[in-house]
Amino acid sequence: MTSSTGRGLLHLAAAVDQPTVFDAGSYVELVRLAERGVLDFVTLGDTFARPGPDALAVLSRVAPATRRIGLVPTVTTTHTEPFHVQAAVATLDWVSRGRAGWHLDVSTTEGEARLFGRRHAAPADTLWQEAGEVADVAARLWDSWEDGAEIRDVATGRFVDRDKLHHTDFEGAAFSVKGPSIVPRPPQGHPVRVVDATEGQARRTAARYADVALLRVTSPAQAAAVRTELRGTAEEFGRDPDTLRILACLVVDLGDGEHAAEPGWGSPLFGRRRELGGGGGGPLGTAQGPRYRGGPVDLADLIAVWHQAGAVDGFHLTPVEPRRDLERLVNGTVALLQHRGLFRTFYPGSTLREHLGLGRPANQYAVTGGTS
Amino acid sequence: MTVRKPAVKQIHLAALPHSHSHSRSRSSGESPVPGVDNTTVWADPRAKSQIEFASFEHLARTAERGLFDFFLLAGGLRLREHKGRIHDLDVVGHPEAITVLNALAAVTERLGLAATVDATFNEPYETARRLATLDHLSGGRAAWNVVTSADAFTGANFRRGGFLDRADRHARTAEFVAAARELWDSWTPEGVSRPFAHRGRHFDIAGEFTVPRSPQGHPVVIQAGDSAEAREFAASSADVVFARHGTLEAGRAFYADVKRRLAAYGREPEDLKIMPGVTFVLGDTAAEAQERAAEIRWQQISPQNAILTLEQIWGVDLSDHDPDGPLPAFDPDPDPHPDPEPGLMQGGVEVADPRAIAEKWRALSHEKGLSIRQTVIEATGRQSFVGTPEAVAAELEEFVRTDAADGFILAPHLTPGGLDEFVDRVVPLLQERGAYRTHYPGTTLRSHLGLADPPTEALIP
Ligand SMILES: Cc1cc2nc3c(=O)[nH]c(=O)nc-3n(C[C@H](O)[C@H](O)[C@H](O)COP(=O)(O)O)c2cc1C
Q1: B137: contact with A, CB 8 A cutoff
Q2: Is the ipTM of this complex over 0.90?
Q3: Which GO terms of the molecular function aspect are on file (chain A) (predicted)?
Q4: Looking at chain A from residue 115 to 134, which residues have their Cβ under 8 Å from any Cβ of chain B?
């Protein structure tokens, strides 16, 4: 199982971050563009410390203005209330009719801690442990209403069947939550959870709770190694590793038009590219993450090569210039991948889980017959 | 800017769908017991989804068609329970308010968008940021209905649990709102950000607020609460009071009391709008409206709901009683709630003096020969405005003209169609009377409410 080499459907996602933009219209435009490219989802980053609007709010604003594309805001878990977070993410799933995801992240700095004044900064590993608990309790709260809990039974006067509502009675190391949620189970059952699995404890949290793991790696060999590890850990946690999608993160600068990727930007892959059959350069490790600079055609090659090598299930692409690069990505790279039959040309389903080929999770309370 | 006052005092209108979810109940009218909150009639065949976005979209578009000031989403943070079991008779569950309102910003253009955000189990930085974002994304239409959680019961869903006694809750709320305003004021209109530091009894926070000043400067602050502390806080800090007094006399008394408190804070009566939450039932004739109102009451107080209401007063299990039979002959348990706060049901209702209520209800039932269900219907909150569209328009106008209110927060009985008839039939009559706008005066909620923008002189760096 863990040796599976992927090569399933190719999945593509893009970041629509526009630092310091607060006007809804420009986000709507970008997400519509990504939707035209039939991407699986868009992400919008967030922290409490950097300028920018609340990401979940922006993607909620975008939801009614788009139809199919998945919407994945970053929502941090360190200074927030798990109960509020799960309710907001579930509501994004309701307003988008099953297109919500949640990129979990933690807040490690003392500066962020001071904004709340409730606790001091803590080591990342501790916070990722806690993020795992938040992911866990969120899933329980999403399940705390079984599907079909609303019965509207006039004869008995009952709006809901209380036997299908469950207390979560969650007791973690960091917090406890009684439940049930205030929000009925969202359309996807569980909105899609995304975790950057590049480092430390985050990788374990991803293996255990994520539907999509993001990797900042610079070569397919590196990606394949982490992928194998992630799938193995997922299996140890009792998961079917095929329920975990693994996407490589790339910062993309398509400013050079049709020029080939610069050799300088492709160190690790470059030496092997001939043997892998790809064109263009591989990414260069930078402070912002692995970065690709070159034309959309070579980028399509790079994506195809990594995917076909079974190193990843797809890519999460962050355009350096959102408008320009997303446009080139959609009209250039994506169009080419579609032309080669490597990427879908329409959305066969309507929820983000369907785009990702992930099933709708069974309800843990319904399955175990958990008590209320 | 000088604003010419219209000859007739103008009515403000807002909509409150899903009024069912408060952790503590509220009733329309002046019922002796705030009954379980069952305004929303779910059993009606016209009642559609209470959770899907399409329902909210329909209600919000209708409110905007009616030129309403705002659309208010109530909220509770724990499902109500009765005898340790989740309450199952009324609409249960609702989406998270700010998230739905951001989505509604995409399908409306002028309507104010008001979110209920609890000040007990939230934090100022995050709340200020979410509300400022809503204000940006909606082009200046955000409002915050500030509520306080009353019980440790709700606290069981949160990291710090139930930790505040009654007095501290209000102090925390006041400090919370003040801190949020400090954050909103930490950016100048020119886009200069300055670090903030707030240190008080409840919050010790510092840093930089990451959202530039939003179109309204400060989102509109709505206050829901009724105690002396709540009224004082409203007078000092709120733009709108979500009041519970829906009758003419009680409304006037409340109105006079709250407006009188403003002077102490250097504020004018117009600076604070008082808007009670009310219901309405229309008919082609007075008799038809009464009949429809009775039908709605009958649907709201199901046999099970009638027994539940009694149990909340009597404090004992009455499930063996026949809702169509007589009231219990015995007296209520004088102290049925061994809670930290006596008299408080878990997210339910507060019953001040159960014995006195029981006595009153028994007398009523005896005098009119009413069953349990009929007594509950008769004794608990009735519809506030019942009549032909002409009569209701006249009555609304009278309330506002005689200072029982500045406007109303209408709670329709039906989702999503419950506002249609009001907007189609009553709004035009109010307009004919010159008591209601015929177009939005501006683009922000503050402009709809006739509220000044918050001062910015203090912000110049
Ligand atoms: C008209 C009205 C509406 C209210 N709406 C809500 C609500 O939506 N959610 C909530 O948690 N509390 C709600 N409350 C409760 C108040 O926030 C507050 O907890 C309660 O009134 C007790 O405080 P007080 O004694 O100062 O009035 C409402 C109260 C009133 C009077």
Answers
A1: yes
A2: yes
A3: monooxygenase activity; oxidoreductase activity, acting on paired donors, with incorporation or reduction of molecular oxygen
A4: 115-118
